[in-house]
Amino acid sequence: MTTAHAPAHPQGLRVVHVPARTPYARKLHGPDFHILNETPLPTGEVIPAAVNAAWLLDHTPLTWLDVLHLHHIDAEDPATLERLLDACTTAGVRVVFTAHDTTPMHGAPADFAARLRLLLAANVHWICLTDTSRSALTDLLGAPPPATVIPHGYVAPPEKLLRREREQGSGSARFLMYGAARHSRDQISPVINWSLGTPDPGATLQLLLRAFSPADFTNESRTPLLLETARQDPRIRLTMRPYPTDDDVINAGLASDVILLPYLWGSHSGQLEFAFDLNLLPVCSRTGHFSEQHRQHQGLAPEPEWFDWSTGHPNLYGERFLTAVENATARLTAAPRHLDPAFLDYRVQEHKTILTAYAQVYGGDR
Questions:
Q1: CA distance readout (Å), 134 to 94, 130, 213
Q2: I need a labelling partner for 54 at 20 to 30 A (CA). Which of 48, 64, 119, 363 fits?
């Protein structure tokens, strides 16, 4: 174990995010607090963007940070997580947890609930992204978590979209799907249905993929089928990145009109917020708290093209998805989409409100 001491940093509370790779975490900085991830300790070691509980325990005492912000804890060993919470208590570190999910992305529901109860018992400070997610967690835990509701906010920074505009197409609909392969999000049936069910020879589907790992090619994996389908249709364009950057994703969005969000289950969606940022038309399954994410914008974001995979026989999923794709294509024909300067101005003001709320949660009674 190495002993770390407080490095010199800008004024304000020092925050470590577990992890800090997503736009959601990286944007949480302001005059009252700043992010330590990817900055060096006096030992010369750099705090990883994707730091975990074990790394932090190897760098106790945790006197070099003020706030530990937990995001996704599915992969953390419960005993290690409990030791980290104890180390934070010893060092006077305030612990904040954002409940991105009300159902597990990985692992068994019982294990997910056990981790949440561990946080509840440790008196950490919770953040929920929607009112309905706070209600769902209350039902799951049997008691209301001490939560502040703070919305997700933007994914594409508004300043990065200034003087940008969607690339002009040929008049045919341009579709985008991106992100890592997850059990909660179907990729293969939407791609096959799009390919066989979209007759327009000028339509395109861009797949922006994160680099594959051996785990993506198990005997149960359908990744090879996805790649084979893409090779059979020249309208499908594959782009691979080690880990897509913000610019990679924004550029892909500006070259598209529709984003496909075929979630089998989920709680909140950063990709849905990204669609609102770029005024992309989302073709999105109605699950989790997605509808409330849309309602939070008070009619400023157009209604997604919803399809319902939460009820009914699973053999109807393809039918519902392809109907939504057809409806989205018709909506594009009626009204081509451009970036919405008024919505971007709204995002700027929303972000200021979000940072004020986080300053209160992070600071507490300091």
A1: 21, 7, 34
A2: 363
Residue 181, number of CB atoms within 10 A of its CB: 18
Q: Are 190 and 321 in contact (CB under 8 A)?
A: yes
CB 318 within 8 A of CB 193: yes
8 Å CB contact between 205 and 194: yes
Q: How far apart are CA 286 and CA 107, in angstroms?
A: 22
The helix, strand and coil proportions of the chain, stated in percent and rounded to the nearest 5, come to 40, 15, 45
Backbone CA torsion sign across 247, 250, 256, 262: positive
Contacting residues for 219 by C-beta, under 8 A, at least 6 apart? none
pLDDT tens string, the chain, 366 residues long: the values are 444 444 444 579 999 999 998 899 999 999 999 999 999 998 889 999 999 999 999 999 999 999 999 998 888 889 999 999 999 999 999 999 999 999 888 778 889 999 999 999 998 999 999 999 999 999 999 999 999 999 999 999 999 999 898 888 788 999 999 987 778 888 899 999 999 999 999 999 999 998 888 888 887 788 888 889 889 999 999 999 998 999 999 999 999 999 999 999 899 999 999 999 999 999 999 999 999 999 999 889 999 999 998 677 778 899 999 999 999 999 998 777 899 999 999 999 999 999 999 999 999 755
Cis peptide before 40 (omega within 30 of 0): no
Joined together, the tokens standing for residue 305 give 């093209």
